[in-house]
Amino acid sequence: MNITEVLNFAVRQISELETNIVSVERLVEYCNTETDPEWRNDEGAKLPSLELVVKNVNHHIEGGKKIGIIERTGAGKSSITLSLFRMIKLAEGTIFIDDVDTTKISLYDLGSHITVILQDPVLFSGVIRFNLNPFNIYTDDEIW
């Protein structure tokens, strides 16, 4: 490695660090933002004019299988993923994992037993192996 490569690497790392610091600062600022006292927050948000994106889906995936959801923009890939993690509430129906309603599974267990590789690669930090096994519970053979 010559000095130019080392300096380029250092500049990239410093730039990435600065970007991450700004992101953390924004999160901290958001978390510390006071709720407007005049804003009623006892009724939640209502979006009555939205159309459902995913309708009439009924699919069985065998245990231990890995699947990919590939479809055009706006077809519902993110909606399905967010529903699996209970980040959005289903308008109707139920999602079962091992014959257990996902609303009965803790958010921690859902998050630690489902792996999602999103389409935007900038969301990854580190190597793919770490993103597939962030808690380092499984061996390489178990992952693949």
From TrEMBL:
GO terms assigned for molecular function: ATP binding; ATP hydrolysis activity; ATPase-coupled transmembrane transporter activity
Domain ABC transporter: residue ranges: 54-127
GO CC, one annotated term: membrane
UniProt protein name: ABC transporter domain-containing protein
Organism name: Strongyloides papillosus (Intestinal threadworm)
Superkingdom of the source species: Eukaryota
Key words, A-Z: ATP-binding, Nucleotide-binding
UniProt-listed InterPro entries: ABC_transporter-like_ATP-bd, ABC_transporter_C-like, P-loop_NTPase
Pfam families (UniProt xref): ABC_tran
